[in-house]
């Protein structure tokens, strides 16, 4: 009995220490051979087009990295979860990715409303979170140590396009067609901001739609009745195409401005002729605009996943979500920890990836991107019409 | 005034689609008391099948559409024989849940086979060519779709009200035991009803796809509105389904145009609640009496 008691004490101590030692030695989501990344995107529901393109782009890009041997001998594995663009499911998925799947980082999350719903949990869980697709909600938000964003600001996009239209396109009266959630409202605020700062342009009307709406004919009538000479589209690709067709049907052909999330070439097919001459913005060089690296990356993504041929822009956007993180892994070295990856991310200065351009992070700066350029749709292709336009960083 | 009429035109066009969806729901409900939650997804599936015939196999329009209608009808019949009939001992609620399962399965299959991206459904009528009556504009496609929708509604009404098959369908729906005692082959009639409902759903899907663009979820909104239209018009009334669709479409469009886009659906459903409070059987439904 006397011999058993000390032995039991030792075993108990070892039993308690082993998990603690393992925890010290190994980060969540990282093994000697693997790095596990998670993402929640809408793979079903009305905006599954965005989710399947972005999710597919992330997956194909990491497969390409794996083909080259991974990073420091570790290969990437992606756990994709479907949230149907539904905030409660996005929160549940985030919990599952962190608590059950034990991912090292969450990459993306499509939808400002989803991001807004999940942000408290993810921030409190201290999971590394790279580029949720919202920007403006982080200004003034604390505890962002593990949050890094390379998504443009809707507020500034709305402002930049409105100012451009006022200065270069003779816009006098502008109206907005927007999705009735934080995404659309953010852009609506941006346009109003632009109206407030540009000379000679007046805000004359707005028409919202719900993401599940199948009929937007009433919105087209309302926009025509507003007397607008320019309409800003803050919508999904489907709703954007529908409103353009409905307006054309009424013989109402204003100057069209569209948010960069409508940048996919699929818009030329969905909206037809009416998509020509639409002005939009881009935060990375769009395919076919003369950047060989981007065109090459797109070809690689399509080789790995031919289905991405149907949504090239979204697939490339997916790459912009993940590639700063992959670069941080390269810089962090073989003995990687979350803190080392954070430190490595904070060393990125005007960094260019395969698709991303001019990403800058720092200890005091987690908004990695603060520039856009105006592009124009012309004969089934986007053309750059301005140089990069920068805007102030907020966090 | 021009805007008012334009809102009404848009509302009626949308309402015709809602009515067409509602007809399929009512047809099945009248005969079997089952609310088919897969109705919209079957319509979407038929539209994707027609899309494949049209674009990938390059069939002419009419054979492609006819084939997809037949395929949807066959799927409806198969669902009755292989799923619902074996589950006939299940409660009514259980059978309704089975249709919900079918909806999810069909939707998943569409996404798997055709992908989630939005497609343009080729249609022989133009969405850009328009007719002007004063300042009011109607596109060739809207006019054509509304006309086809009305024609289908009339044909269905004639089938159910003026033919022997329709008589048998009505008999089975009113008193199954008595109908069977009179020698009406109830199983075949049920199968026929499921087939017809499948074809109606397919027609609704094919007529919706050119307007809303082709996506796996394109029938989500039309199905919910069609269901609401059926309740509004009276769940056992086919004319009620059509009228319900128009009332809903008009109410939504006018409220959106003159009051608020954000509350247009809320307003439409408020009308339904008010109608049902005043007339629980729906606008054209028959009052339900039970003998004691």
Indicate the overall shape of chain B.
Answer: globular
Strand order of the largest sheet of chain B: 1-2
How much helical structure, as a percent, in the residues of chain B?
Answer: over 70%
Please give the largest β-sheet of chain B.
2 strands, antiparallel
Question: Counting H and I runs of at least 4 residues, what is the number of helices of chain B?
Answer: 11
How many runs of DSSP E, i.e. beta strands of chain B?
Answer: 2
Uncertain spans of chain A: 19-25
- The SS-based structural class of chain B is mainly alpha
The low-confidence runs of chain B, each spanning 5 or more residues with pLDDT under 50, are none
- Which percent band covers the strand fraction of chain A? 15-25%
| Cα end-to-end separation of chain A | 63 Å
Averaged pLDDT of chain A: 91
Gyration radius of chain A (Cα, Å) is: 23 Å
- Strand portion of chain B: under 5%
Task: Give the largest interface.
Answer: A-B, 41 and 40 residues
Oligomer: heterodimer
Which strand order does the major sheet of chain A show?
2-1-3-4-5
Distance between the termini of chain B: 54 Å
Along the chain, the helix and strand elements of chain B come as HHHHEEHHHHHHH
SSE order of chain A, one letter for each helix or strand: HEHEHEHEEHEHEHEHEHEHHHEEE
């Amino acid at each position: 009995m006397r011999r058993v008691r000390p032995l039991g004490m030792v075993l108990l101590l070892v039993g308690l220490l082993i998990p603690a030692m393992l925890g010290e030695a190994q980060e969540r989501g990282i093994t000697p051979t693997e790095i596990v990344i998670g993402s929640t995107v809408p793979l079903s529901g009305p905006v599954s087009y965005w989710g399947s393109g972005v999710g597919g782009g992330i997956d194909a890009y990491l497969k390409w990295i794996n083909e080259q041997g991974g990073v420091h001998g570790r290969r990437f594995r992606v756990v994709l979860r479907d949230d149907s663009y539904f905030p409660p499911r996005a929160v549940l998925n985030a919990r599952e990715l962190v608590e059950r799947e034990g991912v090292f980082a969450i990459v993306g999350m499509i939808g400002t409303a989803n991001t807004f719903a999940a942000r408290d949990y993810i921030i409190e869980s201290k999971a590394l979170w790279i580029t949720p697709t919202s920007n403006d909600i982080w200004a003034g938000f604390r505890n962002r140590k593990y949050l890094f964003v390379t998504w443009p600001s809707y507020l500034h996009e709305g402002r930049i396009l409105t100012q451009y239209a006022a200065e270069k396109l003779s816009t006098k009266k502008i109206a907005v067609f927007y999705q009735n959630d934080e995404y659309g409202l953010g852009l609506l605020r941006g346009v109003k901001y632009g109206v407030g700062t540009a000379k000679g342009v007046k805000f004359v009307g707005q028409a919202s739609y719900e993401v599940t709406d199948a009929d937007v004919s009433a919105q087209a009538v309302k926009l025509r009745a507003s007397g607008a000479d320019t309409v800003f589209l803050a919508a999904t690709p489907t709703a954007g195409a529908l409103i353009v067709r409905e307006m054309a049907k009424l013989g109402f052909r204003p100057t069209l401005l569209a948010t960069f999330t409508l940048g996919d070439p699929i818009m030329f097919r969905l909206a037809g002729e009416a998509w020509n001459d639409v002005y939009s913005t881009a935060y990375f060089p769009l395919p076919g605009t003369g950047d060989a690296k981007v065109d090459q990356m797109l070809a690689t993504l399509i080789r790995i996943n031919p289905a991405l041929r149907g949504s090239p822009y979204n697939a490339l956007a997916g790459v912009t979500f993940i590639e700063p993180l992959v670069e941080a892994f390269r810089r962090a070295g073989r003995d990687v920890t979350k803190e080392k990856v954070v430190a490595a991310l904070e060393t990125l200065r005007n960094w260019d990836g395969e698709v991303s351009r001019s990403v800058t992070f720092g200890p005091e700066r987690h908004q990695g991107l603060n520039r856009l350029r105006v592009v124009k749709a012309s004969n089934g292709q986007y053309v750059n019409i301005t140089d990069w336009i920068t805007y102030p960083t907020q966090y | 005034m021009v805007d008012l009429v334009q809102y009404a035109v848009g509302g009626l066009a949308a309402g015709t689609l809602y009515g067409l969806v509602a007809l399929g729901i009512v047809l099945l409900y009248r005969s079997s008391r089952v609310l088919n939650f897969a109705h919209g997804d079957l319509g979407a599936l038929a539209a994707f099948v027609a899309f494949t015939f049209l674009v990938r196999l390059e069939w002419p329009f009419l054979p492609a559409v006819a084939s997809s209608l037949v395929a949807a009808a066959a799927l409806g019949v198969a669902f009755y024989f292989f799923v619902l009939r074996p589950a006939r001992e299940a409660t009514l609620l259980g059978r309704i849940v089975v249709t919900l399962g079918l909806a999810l399965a069909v939707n998943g299959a569409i996404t798997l086979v055709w992908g989630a991206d939005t497609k343009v459904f080729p249609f022989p009528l133009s969405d850009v060519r328009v007719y002007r009556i004063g300042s009011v504009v109607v596109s060739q496609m809207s006019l054509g779709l509304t006309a086809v929708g009305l024609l289908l509604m009339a044909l269905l009404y004639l089938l159910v009200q003026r033919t022997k098959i329709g008589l048998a369908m009505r008999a089975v729906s009113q008193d199954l035991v008595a109908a069977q005692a009179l020698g009406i082959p109830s199983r075949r009639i049920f199968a026929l009803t499921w087939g017809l409902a499948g074809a109606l759903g397919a027609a609704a899907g094919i007529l919706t796809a050119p307007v809303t663009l082709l996506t796996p979820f394109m029938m989500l909104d039309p199905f919910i509105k069609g269901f609401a239209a059926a309740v509004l018009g009276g769940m056992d009334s086919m004319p009620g389904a059509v009228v319900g669709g128009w009332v809903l479409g008009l109410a939504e469009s006018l409220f959106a145009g003159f009051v608020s886009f954000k509350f247009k659906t809320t307003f439409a459903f408020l009308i339904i609640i008010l109608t049902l409070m005043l007339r629980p059987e729906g606008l054209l439904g028959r009052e339900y009496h039970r003998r004691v």
